[in-house]
Amino acid sequence: MTAIASLLKTQPQPFRFLLYTEWTMLASCGVMAAIEAWQRQSLPVQHILILISLGLMGWILPSGKTSFRYLYTAIEMGLIFYGTTLGYLHILPTLYLIVLIRSCFLFESPGRWIVAGLSLVMYMVHQFQYLQRVMPLMLPNIEQQQIWMHQTAELLMFGLGLFFVSQLVNTLLAERRTQEQLSQAHAQLREYALQIEDLAAVQERNRIAREIHDSLGHALTSLNIQLQTAMKLWQHDPTEAQPFLEQAHRLGKVAMKEVRQSVSALRADAEAEETLEQQIASLMENFRQSMGVTVTSSICVEVVLPPTVVKTLYRIVQEALTNICKYAQATEVRLQLQTTRDRVLLSIEDNGRGFELESRASGFGLQGMRERITSLNGEFHLETSPEAGCRIDVSLPLSR
Questions:
Q1: Residue 80 and residue 365: Cα distance in Å, rounded?
Q2: pLDDT in tens, 297-313
């Protein structure tokens, strides 16, 4: 059953106006048959059935196996050929144009030209049969040369008709395929646009996550250390805990400021009110007051840095100090920032306990640093080992 269904698979006529053209030609043949019936006073039933059959066959075209499509075309040509043997209608052979139109939807170029060639050959046969019938009935004063010239002109006109009809239908099919390809390309573009939108949303979520981790995480880590120290000192001497509580209060304000800035960043990135030197100096001073660590910094920025580079450097310093505060147990931190003709170089080093690089290489803080630097086509290098401190080197290109 599946094989039969595949063999008999059909498709509707894709162009309605071609279907109406076919019906117009069939109707013209029907009118000629009616005129001949009125002259002979007999109804050409077989002619009418042939025309009706051809009209119904054009309503649905086969799209199954090639053999079935050739059979379909052969039946059409056979019906027209048989109709010419029933009492010749001079217009009937022009219906081979209908066969050619339908063949353009059934076959590729070689098959179409085969059908066109067969149609032309059969038309020539019909013209020869016509001459054999009408020559004995002609008057003696009618020259045979005029008759042959007339038939030759009809043959040429039919051949040109086959050619132009074939080109017309081929053009329509090419335009239809182009429209389908454009529709598919448009659908793919919509799909790509949705994928880009999803990717942009993921990147934005990652950016916001880095912002919250680097900014708010740093402030809350320092605040937590100050509160823990104040709680321990409060049990023995509340006056000694007072400076740590004041520092915790100040860090709480900083945390609130970072939250507001993160919320504002969801709407738009505003330019920093302070220079990079001022921001880093403030960050290092807060770190020194919070941790009681010796801080040494050397900042030499001789060019105007793009806002994205300024923000990236600030967040990297912030995250590095947060990691030192949480894990390093360092007593000294050294920071160096300088610019060259086409790059900005940042180095942060501590004398803490260090760590095994493989054990924390995938931490969120280090991962956030790498993502920030990679987004600017920069370079990130980390050196550390147990009990040997840690050093971070960053190099970012500067566009001219």
A1: 83
A2: 999 998 888 888 998 89
